[in-house]
Amino acid sequence: MKAAVIVFPGSNCDRDVQVALRQSMGREPLMVWHKETDFDAVDLIVLPGGFSYGDYLRCGAMAANSPVMKEVVARAAKGVAVLGICNGFQMLTETGLLPGVLMRNADLRFVCRDVGIKVETSQSVFTSRYEQGEAIRIPVAHHDGNYFADEDTLSALEDRGQIAFRYCDADGTVTPQANPNGSQRNIAGVYNEAKTVLGLMPHPERLADPKLGGNDGRPIFDGLVEALS
Amino acid sequence: MKARVHVTLKNGVLDPQGKAIEQALGALGFGGVEEVRQGKVIEFSLQESDPAKARADVEAMCQKLLANTVIENYAIELDG
User: Fold this and answer.
1) What SMART domains is this protein classified in (chain A) (predicted)?
2) What CATH number has the domain bearing residue B34?
3) A115 φ/ψ sector (left φ>0, alpha ψ -120 to 50, else beta)
4) Alpha-carbon span A199 to A85, nearest angstrom
5) pLDDT for A201-219, tens place per residue?
6) Is A86 marked active-site?
7) Which of A21, A37, A134, A208 makes the best surface tag, with the fewest CB within 10 Å?
8) ipTM for this prediction
9) Chosen from A57, A105, A157 to mutate, greatest number of chain B CBs within 10 A
10) Domain containing B27: what range?
11) A101: nearest Cα among A64, A146, A142, A66
């Protein structure tokens, strides 16, 4: 598998993703600066977390209109896998590659801690190494992770199996108490219709090495390498 | 020509920041304040002098960047 990590001014998880990918791929991912308009063919594009362009106007809005993003959108349309983590998820909703929007957390606080998330399906290139319904522990760190979409959109997401992860307690039960930011239906991550694009607020790259306190994020990267090689 | 764009949250979209402002106003003793909604105002100058063209341009700017129409409405004011 070949992968590219897009680097924006204000990205701060690009190198964490680079390390996680290197570990699973056994080779270096391409690091692509936001001003590039073309880059080598890859099987996976990662939009990393951070505060691209200082979160000006709306989180992800400037990045969504940056030069490199036209290419990302064009490749996503051709079926190239795209993974957006945290700020990357916000970019994906701003480009329209994913439905909905990520609003300010309901309690207005920046939330930075491990949360439980339930894997809604293992039928995707991102989650094939998990069991359906499995509860995993992944850190979140965001101020704007409150997923919102209108009722029709939410129903369509449910019907098509596009909800990737939901916030849950330790045994996998989806409860209001387990929801760290007010997201509708406890949504922590969503797919596009073809399940080739995934956006999620939690950071799997931050728990992809036991030395860092856990390994629950690693299967995403291992699964991608297996599916896309 | 000057343009002013008001971006506001659509009805039905929860506004936690508006709620916090409402509570703070209540705590300051301003009673009877309800339904606070926070938005933004974006101002700029345009070289275009034809009002119809200017409005069409600003409309496109709102659609493409200035507002996220999933959750936000926008209103355009042109002056001069």
Assistant:
1) GATase_5
2) 3.30.1280.10
3) beta
4) 6
5) 999 999 999 999 999 999 9
6) yes
7) A37
8) 0.85
9) A57
10) 2-79
11) A146
